[in-house]
Amino acid sequence: MFPSIEWYGGALVGLLCACVFLTVHELTRRDVANRSVLAAISSGITSVTIAGTLVYIGGRILVG
């Protein structure tokens, strides 16, 4: 599918994505129930931003 990516690069990016998913899942599972709408929105945005940043940086480092 992507001829410039070796198989081990894809495997490492997949492993990184799985680790990020598990980390974000644990962080949101332990999060207390938000009573405010703004607090709930910021909690969701924070987890998505952190996960996206880690995946982007990991992909740039591993794949190039």
Explain what this protein looks like in three dimensions:
- The protein has 64 residues and is mainly alpha-helical.
- The chain has 2 helices and no strands.
- α1 (7-29) runs antiparallel to α2 (37-62).
- The relative contact order is 0.17.
- The model has no long low-confidence stretch (mean pLDDT 77).
Keywords:
single chain; 64 residues; 2 helices; 77% helix
Question: What is the topology?
Answer:
Blueprint: H1 7-29, H2 37-62
Helix pairs in contact: 1-2
Summarize the structure.
The chain has 64 residues and is an all-alpha fold. Helix content is 77%, strand content 0%.
- The gross shape turns out to be elongated
- The helix count comes to 2
Going by helix content, strand content and strand pairing, the class is mainly alpha
Strand content: under 5%
* E-strand count: 0
Uncertain runs are: none
Which whole number gives the mean pLDDT?
Answer: 77
